[in-house]
Amino acid sequence: MLVLATIAAALSLVFDEQISDNFRRDAVLPNLLRVVPSGNDTATWKTKIAARNTAAAVAEGHTVVDGDFSTDTRLTASLTWAHYESYFALSGTAMRISAANGGGGDNGGALIEEMTDSLDELTVKISSDSYAGAVTASPVQVEGLARAVKSSVAYAGIDPATYTTWVAAQNTLATASLSIANLRTKLLRPYKDANGKMPEFVICDGATWDLIAALGDSKTVISIDTITTAMGRVNLAELGFRAVRIDGVPFIEDRHCTTSVLYALDSKNVFYRQTPPLVASMDPAILQRAIKDLTGKDVGSNDIVAAQLRMQGRLTPQINLLAKSGDSTRGQAVIDLRLCVRSRAKTAKLTLT
């Protein structure tokens, strides 16, 4: 007899693409940023604080001494996991009606619709907290960009008062003075001066994006449909997102972004960590049998392993089926994750006032 955990794991695999696509829909950052799996007790990642200072012209035949050596400071950034849940339930009557109409009972139809609606709610919450969340909240939230991209205040256990390069370029600009020239001066130039290259993309809220899109002619502000990030080629138009390109940099609208703030980012520097769902580590043979029992379909073990690997490389909630309450089937979606910034110096922020 299949236990609830195995049934839920099999359902997660059967509906892997549907769950993933639904979870990431309407959420800009989860579509742009890479995901790194982790099994640590806390979300940790390595950072380097610039400290090397030995490169110089020297006389031919220079004798190397101990003072000629230096290294960057290597630190471990650490944040406790943020745990998120959403819930779904369906009455027995609704389940039977769904099954009678070809919905497939426990493994499809109305129950899956309830589950995907639950994932909608979860993804919106995580997307919002990716900007506004706070590790100091109770319960702990994702530490959002509003707090992570700053020129002051400790982040992930690293204090800029101690490590003076652990800062982001921050500027303010009166909304009435918004122009392409000022975007260059206040946002793009500070980022490029700190990193030697332009940001990969800039994120802003809808009202700010509208102002930016109206700034120049079609030769200066160019509407674009796709960009390439660490996640690969992302079709923004297909996802329903809007973007324009200024000086080669995509400016992307995100309705969850902090109001009147523009964030300049690089997807190699800003990423998510997550604890992968249990199904990603389960024995493929057990999952293969469970899928056969539930759906009557044979799924190759190679296909199962491929799906498990995909789950570790993108934000993937774990689906749990809970004990029945009377004639009602209940479930939850859970995920433990963190939004991580590898180096504050590779971010920039412009606030419109």
Order of helices and strands: HHHEEEEHHHEHEHEEEHEEEEHHEEE
Number of helices: 11
Instruction: Indicate the radius of gyration in whole angstroms.
Output: 24 Å
Helix content: 25-40%
What proportion strand? 25-35%
Uncertain residue segments: none
Distance between the termini: 62 Å
Mean pLDDT: 86
Spatial strand order of the main sheet: 5-16-12-6-11-10-7
Structural class: alpha+beta
Overall morphology: globular
Count all strands and give the number.
Answer: 16
Main sheet record:
7 strands, mixed
Please outline what is shown here.
The chain is 32% helix and 26% strand. By secondary structure, the protein is α+β, with helices and mostly antiparallel strands. Helix 1 (4-14) crosses helix 10 and helix 2 packs parallel to helix 5 (110-132).
Secondary-structure blueprint:
Elements (H helix, E strand, L loop, with lengths): L3 H11 L1 H9 L3 H5 L2 E3 L5 E7 L23 E7 L2 E10 H9 L9 H23 L12 H4 L20 E5 L6 H16 L5 E4 L1 H8 L8 E3 L1 E4 L2 E4 H4 L3 E4 L2 E5 L7 E5 L4 E5 L9 H12 L5 H12 L5 E8 L2 E14 L6 E5 L1
Parallel strand pairs: 1-13, 5-16, 6-11
Antiparallel strand pairs: 2-3, 4-15, 6-12, 7-10, 8-9, 10-11, 12-16, 13-15, 14-15
Helix pairs in contact: 1-10, 2-5
Description of the molecule:
The protein is α+β, with helices and mostly antiparallel strands and 353 residues long. 32% of the residues lie in helices and 26% in strands. Helix 1 packs across helix 10 (284-295). The chain is globular. 37% of the residues are buried.
List keywords for this structure.
353 residues; alpha+beta; 7-stranded mixed β-sheet; 5-stranded mixed β-sheet; 11 helices; 26% strand; globular
